């Protein structure tokens, strides 16, 4: 197709008349069968058609409000540090441009109900905070023509969503490389929540770096977490009962690393003297716990700022083509990772730690 897609292109793709396509794209989908409405909306998204709807919105003066939508899986803000930091960045970009935000916290998994609530004429576009695998938020193209940007999830191209996220792959690879440079070859890994794309990206990066260095991954040292500190503590309890231990453990986020370290302290296993631990995020507590955590920093504020910038660009230009922006992380070396050959023995009441060559300390 040459040039910008037209309403005729959408109608032809959906197999309907131009009038039908126009009515559905102007919010009158209730006049038609649900499957027809979904075909038209899907065709519009696949073709990147939005210019005329944006022009109409400009003509009638937009609401100057952007919706910030939390995934139903983590719709509470109370302990959601990631969402708080992203919101700060969104506000920093929108407020000087006279935009407000509307926080939307769905309490249902019904995609039709969620998108009726989101796309009800009260907002001009939406920023989705970390939608998880199978999230009803990801069915947006069947229910809405709003401009949408997702943050905190590097999604497959099939979702046709503009995205801003940290480069999870490169960031985890950087800390895995650094730990290996400290002489560690016996390395464990605590995985993040299985429904989060970031968890899988970080695990894949860890496994790839290990393979590149010819270091086998001991599957009994790869434990499931859920990004919460309690899951890190539980993983530590499982790992520390084993006959042999890694010299270092990488955690897919800081909260799990902190839980892991706290369990080590409870069991009188010193970090990093007996086992090294690294996290991911450079969260508030990583910088303020009793022993400063080695981790990867990424700028959640910048993620929010750039997402708001990307969304307003879509509104102003009518360019509906999905864009992807990945922000690099930065290794932050503190005091929870020691040189492998400097590790002390675990107390006799606990498992032994493997040295680089696989012998016991």
What are its keywords?
disordered C terminus, alpha/beta, four-stranded parallel beta sheet, six-stranded parallel beta sheet, 361 residues
Report what the structure shows.
- The chain has 361 residues and is of the alpha/beta class.
- Among the domains are: 1-49, 434 Repressor (Amino-terminal Domain) (Orthogonal Bundle), CATH 1.10.260; 168-298 and 332-353, 3-Layer(aba) Sandwich (Rossmann fold), CATH 3.40.50.2300.
- The chain has eleven helices and 14 strands.
- The strands form four sheets. A six-stranded parallel beta sheet has the order 2-1-3-4-5-12, with helices on one face.
- Helix 5 (81-94) links the parallel strand 1 (65-70) and strand 2.
- The chain is elongated, with a radius of gyration of 24 Å.
- It starts with 6 loop residues before the first helix and ends in an 8-residue tail after the last strand.
């Amino acid at each position: 197709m040459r040039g910008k897609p037209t309403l005729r292109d959408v109608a032809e793709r959906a197999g309907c008349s131009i009038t039908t396509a126009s009515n559905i794209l102007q919010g009158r989908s209730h006049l038609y069968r649900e499957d027809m409405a979904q075909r038209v909306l899907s065709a519009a998204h696949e073709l990147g058609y939005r210019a005329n709807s944006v022009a109409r919105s400009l003509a009638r003066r937009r609401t100057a409000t952007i919706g910030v939508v939390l995934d139903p899986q983590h719709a509470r803000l109370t302990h959601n540090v990631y969402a708080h930091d992203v919101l700060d960045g969104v506000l920093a970009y929108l407020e000087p441009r006279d935009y407000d935000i509307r926080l939307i916290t769905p309490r249902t998994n019904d995609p039709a109900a969620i998108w009726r609530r989101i796309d009800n004429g009260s907002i001009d576009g939406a920023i989705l905070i970390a939608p998880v695998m199978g999230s009803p938020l990801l069915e947006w193209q069947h229910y809405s023509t709003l401009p949408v940007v997702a943050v905190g999830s590097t999604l497959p191209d099939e979702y046709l969503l503009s995205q801003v996220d940290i480069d999870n792959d490169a960031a985890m690879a950087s800390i895995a490389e650094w730990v290996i440079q400290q002489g560690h070859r016996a390395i464990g890994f605590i995985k993040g929540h299985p429904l989060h794309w970031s968890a899988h990206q970080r695990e894949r990066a860890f496994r790839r770096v290990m393979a590149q260095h010819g270091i086998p991954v001991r599957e009994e040292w790869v434990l499931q977490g859920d990004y919460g500190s309690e899951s890190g503590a539980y993983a530590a309890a499982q790992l520390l009962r084993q006959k042999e231990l890694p010299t270092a453990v990488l955690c897919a986020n800081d909260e799990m690393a902190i839980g892991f370290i706290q369990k080590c302290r409870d069991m009188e296993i010193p970090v990093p003297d007996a086992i090294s631990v690294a996290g991911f995020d450079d969260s508030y507590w990583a910088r303020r716990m009793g022993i400063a955590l080695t981790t990867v920093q990424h700028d959640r504020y910048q993620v929010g700022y750039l997402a708001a910038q990307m969304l307003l660009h879509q509104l102003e230009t009518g360019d509906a083509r999905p864009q992807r922006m990945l922000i690099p992380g930065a290794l932050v070396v503190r005091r929870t990772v020691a040189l492998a050959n400097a590790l002390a023995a675990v107390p006799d009441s606990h498992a032994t730690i493997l040295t680089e060559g696989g012998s016991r300390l």
